[in-house]
Amino acid sequence: MHPETSITRKRIAFLASGRGSNFQAVIDAVAAGTIPATCTGLVTDNPRAYAIERAKSAGVPVTVVDYARFSSKAAYEEALLHAMRGCRADLFVLAGYMRILGPVIVHEFSGRMMNIHPALLPAFAGLHAQRQAVEYGVKVAGCTVHLVDEGLDTGPIVVQRCVPVLPDDDETTLADRILIEEHKALPLAVQLFCEERLDVDGRRVRVL
Ligand code: GAR
């Protein structure tokens, strides 16, 4: 039980493809007691993802579903879904998962899957969001945590945080500034879900 409410600890699991710093931010918040949850698994499509080392250090079970070993996206997603079901998670967190999920997985985890994206959606969806922001010339950038629907970075928005874009920024300096905010936004969004404080009404998410 969460100390101040009657909420049962949630089971949260993760999909990550790479470095895993957002994954780390969430497991740190769980370890600190800020998020009333148990981390039940990391599933990755990349056997070289540094997120795997982070999971091992934190005692989070890892399943590798190596994309390169499958002959089709359908076969890969069938194995991925099997691995995800094995985590028996209330919430799946996409923490730097760099592939588009197919409709079967999105449907199964509808309302209980979140993604972190390094832009102020609906601007700059898809890959290289920070580069898109610099090239467009926006003065404010940021990050978005949203529920996952069948579109590309289109689901209902849970948390956004912004940063200035400075005159000499390039993709890397802007990404570094946004990442600091990502590490606050994602744990907060996961915390709100785990505390059952998200009220989703169509596109609009109200924090209770
Ligand atoms: C983060 O900036 C995340 O927002 C982005 O990948 C990075 C992963 O870093 N995700 C996407 O672009 C998804 N479309 P991390 O592995 O250190 O968390």
Question: Short summary of the structure?
Answer:
The chain is of the alpha/beta class and 208 residues long. It has six helices and nine strands.
Give your account of this protein's structure.
There is one protein chain. Helix content is 34%, strand content 24%. It has 208 residues and is of the alpha/beta class. It has one domain (9-199): Formyl transferase, N-terminal domain (Rossmann fold). Helix 1 links the parallel strand 1 and strand 2 (37-44). The two termini are 19 Å apart.
The fourth-level CATH homologous superfamily is Formyl transferase, N-terminal domain
N-end to C-end Cα span: 19 Å
Largest sheet, strands/sense/barrel: 7 strands, mixed
What average pLDDT do the residues reach?
96
Helix percent reads 25-40%
CATH class category label = Alpha Beta
Instruction: Tell me which oligomeric state these chains represent.
Output: single chain
Radius of gyration from CA coordinates: 17 Å
List unreliable stretches of 5+ residues.
none
Strand content: 15-25%
Q: Give the number of helices.
A: 6
Just name the CATH architecture. 3-Layer(aba) Sandwich
CATH T-level fold name = Rossmann fold
* Cofactors, ions, other ligands: glycinamide ribonucleotide
Give, in order, the helices and strands. EHEHEHEHEHEEHEE
Gross morphology is globular
Class inferred from helices and paired strands:
alpha/beta
Strand order of the largest sheet: 3-2-1-4-5-6-7
Task: Please report the total strand number as a whole number.
Answer: 9
**How many structural domains can be distinguished in the coordinates?**
1
